[in-house]
Design a protein that fits this description.
Number of strands: 18
Helix content: 25-40%
Structural class: alpha/beta
Number of helices: 14
CATH superfamily of the largest domain: Dihydrodipicolinate Reductase, domain 2
Distance between the termini: 49 Å
Radius of gyration: 22 Å
Largest sheet: 10 strands, mixed
Bound molecules: L-homoserine
Oligomer: single chain
Number of domains: 3
CATH architecture of the largest domain: 2-Layer Sandwich
CATH class of the largest domain: Alpha Beta
Length: 392
Amino acid sequence: MAKFAIMGHGTLGSGLAEVARVNKDEIAARLGEAVEVKYILDIRDFPDSPDADKFIKDFAIIENDPEVEVVVECIGGTKVAQEFTRRALQAGKHVVTANKELVATFGKDLLAIAAEKNVNYLFEASVGGAIPLLRPLFQCMAGNQIEEIAGILNGTTNYILTRMVQDGASFADALKEAQAKGYAEADPTADVEGIDAGRKICILANLAWGKEVAPSKVSMTGISAIDLKDVDIAASAGYKVKLLGHALRLDGGKVAAYVAPHLVSEKMLLASVDDVFNACMIRGNAADEVMFYGRGAGKPTASALMGDVIDAIQHREKRRELGWSESADLADSALLPMKWYLRGDFTAADAKAVCGEVEEIAPNAVITAAMSEIDAKAVAEKLSAAAMLRVL
Ligand code: HSE
């Protein structure tokens, strides 16, 4: 019998306790050993929970109980979550988390402690919610040189964009719904401004290229400044507006990573990813493009947490080699060539005079040829453009 503890009883923590309870027979059969939640740590009381007898308020009970092999951190943030993660690893326990902020910001150090203590620090649930994504990247695609990663990595913003476009909901109402469904972060600014997706593209880049891409060095733009006018023009021309995380390895080994809203052609799979769903394309030099799709936030994320608990137990003797080293050599994402959507009080002929060939997609909107963000900003300024968005 393997025992684990869950820290935090919000959407993910309670979801994980439920998965462990409901699927206990299947899990035991697959693992060859029963797995049981021994403690649930939360400052609140849950007298009506089927696990009511497992609630504790003192982390030291988990830390000092040799029976607890795995600790699942569902607290969030980087303060208490980091302290308890460090202490659990130091106490020789495997730690599983969905905390992308903690993994993206302090993952290198935490993985170093895990290596020193010969335990696992696993975070499949930190990117893409329920989607199996990190393990396929670092395990199944280990034989590739990873060239590019592009994905819809935030469920809240994808949900908001979908509700606004399909149902005419207001931004504020759509955000409230996403919060009620347990998709949004405690402070939804992280979702709306692209910071959550930024942390996730950093984790993907770290695993893809083995070197740290710090969130503080990545340009992140969210959806708060998007004008519905542009969403409508894009739709009439066969594009959807999607918030994408994008990371590339450039010739010479530099890595570029950023988050920004893009026009995505409806011919591309990513364009049909709606609601809370996430999708991520990974291109390797052996596999070419592979695509992962599923629910990116909320209770289904417990599936990925449970998978990591099982994996930690399976690797209790020989830990999974996982980690990244010193800082990646980063390229300025503003220099990456890409096509741009520009809208304003100008004609296609005006735009052509400023930047050469353009595609007119509406009487007052064009798509340019590929150019850097720096050049596109100069063009937008000359045309006094009212809106400017990347095109994938
Ligand atoms: N707030 C996050 C999202 C939760 O909406 O994607 C899952 O990481």
